[in-house]
Amino acid sequence: MTQTSELSPALPTERVLLGILGLFMMIAPASTDMYLPGLVTMRHELGASAAAAQLTLSYFFLGFAFGQLLWGPLADRFGRRWPMAAGIALYIFGSVGCAFSDTIDHMMMWRFVQALGGCAMPVIAQAIVRDVYGARNSARAFSIMLLVMSVAPIVAPLLGGQLLRFTTWRVIFGILAVFGVVAMLALWRLPETGAVHARTVGGPRAIVMSYWHLLRDKHFVGYMVAGGAVFGASFTYITGTPLVYMEYFHVSPQFFGVLFGINIVGMASMTMFNSRRVGQIGSYRLMRAGIIGCAVVTSVLCATAWLGMAILPLMVALLFLFMSLRGIITANSVAGAMANHPTRAGAAAALVGSVQYGFGFAAGALLGVLNDGSPRPLATVMCAFALLALVSMLLMLPGKRAAA
Which of 352, 358, 344 lies closest to 75 in space, CA to CA? Predict the structure, then answer.
């Protein structure tokens, strides 16, 4: 680790630190993936259409996108711990509201509140990594954190599917509220890592100028859009597969959890590979290989869907390849975007996360508009996002790849 003694001698061991930060990163997959097996049941119970049910995911992504723009600058201004504590408290409140929702509109509102608070955890966790590890070692640290985080997408849908055997989808949101309590307790194991001398000063104008400075950095924008577009394709997969698998292919909620978990195993394996090899191969080269692979895989997926060849085994295989390749994109794109901005780590993480979840919201909205009950909208939107990532990567100036 770098900078540890300079910032805080009270930091826990690296294993504990990255474990806690990985827990904070789990909040998004836990909050989306655990209730996916119950999405169809929830929409029938609340009397909602398929498009409206998908909007409960879209509003969560919108809350994540908007909230990060708030929490990132607050973390740069007031330090890391107190803004995160406030966000976790709001997340717990929103989770309880979701559990007691009696209409689909109320569910959308509470999902937005849940995300608005929950997004403080991953965005501030990324800023803490930048505080502690610096630009050089951040990609490795992010990979280890994402490896810890990958437990949630594997366990969450399996747990959600099994819970539906004995109880309702409302209990799932109660469990998410308990997750928030656990995150609050874990937060108190961490000291403040934001150096006082590095904190930003000023009001809204300073926040706007911070974002303007970041958006003028072409390599920052390139990494941000490329990584964000891959996130958009991933969220298309998350939003679209419950209805495609369970209503088009008539897969049971329990088997859906298995199929979902298999894909995350592939992503976790590639994330582990990235953490071990990024120092030798380079983060930009690994990210480039992953994005090219995603573009090829989603193009094949799109072609098979429109040619009427979208059978379940083929879709499962292609989606497995896509999610596996994502494992060598995410950590490298985030580390590359944040490499040159140590004093704006919170704002940089917020902007990166906001773009990611903004694409996630767009993915849900597009699926809702294009929904025809077939796999075609899912395949088309995933392919469009993957191609956007490829174009963004190709437009990055070679001389600006700071994390290469």
Answer: 344
Best CA proximity match to 247, nearest among 364, 111, 371: 371
Quote the distance between the C-alpha of residue 146 and its chain's center.
Answer: 10
How many other CB atoms sit within 10 Å of the CB of residue 3?
Answer: 17
Average pLDDT of span 237-248:
85
What distance in Å separates the CA atoms of residue 179 and residue 342, rounded to the nearest whole number?
A: 30
CA-based nearest residue to 143, from 280, 321, 330, 322: 330
Q: DSSP labels for 322-339?
A: HHHHHTTTHHHHHHHHHT
Residues 6+ apart with CB under 8 A from 339: 135, 138, 402, 403
Of 17-21, 56-60, 278-282, 320-324, least confident by mean pLDDT is 278-282
Which tokens in the block code for residue 101?
Answer: 């929702």
Nearest 5 degrees, angle CA 144-CA 61-CA 51? 130
pLDDT digits (tens, 9 = 90+) for 6-55: 344 566 777 788 888 888 988 888 888 888 888 888 988 998 887 788 78
**Radius of gyration of the chain, Cα coordinates, nearest whole angstrom:** 20
Query: Residue 399 pLDDT more than 70?
Result: no
Sign of CA dihedral 90, 95, 96, 101: positive
Contacts of 250 (CB under 8 A, 6+ apart): none
Q: Which of 322, 316, 314 lies closest to 296 in space, CA to CA?
A: 322
Angle formed at CA 376 by CA 371 and CA 377, multiple of 5 degrees: 40
DSSP string for residues in 388-400: HHHHHHHHS-GGG
Q: Dihedral sign, CA of 358, 361, 365, 370?
A: positive
Supply 33's token pair.
């993936």
Angle at the Cα of 397 from the Cα atoms of 393 and 403, rounded to 5 degrees: 75
DSSP character at residue 385: H
**What pLDDT shows up at residue 403?**
44
How does pLDDT run across 322-362, given as a tens digit for each residue? 999 998 898 788 878 877 776 677 778 788 888 888 898 88
